[in-house]
From TrEMBL:
Pfam families: S4_2 (PF13275)
Protein name: RNA-binding S4 domain-containing protein
Origin species: Erysipelothrix piscisicarius
Domain of life: Bacteria
Alphabetized UniProt keyword annotations: RNA-binding
Sample GO molecular function, one term: RNA binding
């Protein structure tokens, strides 16, 4: 499972997809979200603006990522 570090309090799903190198733009993020199965904490998610907080788990096409703060390991 990969860990994604973010310095602010939250990151949106669309921003996360860009930082994690799944997409290069917001338009690509929107397409990916509506094309592939994306789960946040075990629930299907289709909102690009969904806020992700430390401890949230995002699964994209079977790849699991945990959101952490910059200070966590």
């Amino acid at each position: 499972m990969g860990a994604m570090k973010k310095e602010t309090q939250y990151i949106t799903l669309g921003q996360f997809l860009k930082v994690a190198d799944y997409v290069n733009s917001g338009g690509e993020a929107k397409h990916l979200i509506h094309t592939f199965s994306i789960q946040v904490n075990g629930e299907e998610e289709n909102r690009r603006g969904r806020k992700l907080y430390p401890g949230d788990v995002v699964v994209i096409n079977g790849n699991k990522h945990e959101i952490t703060t910059e200070h966590e390991g």
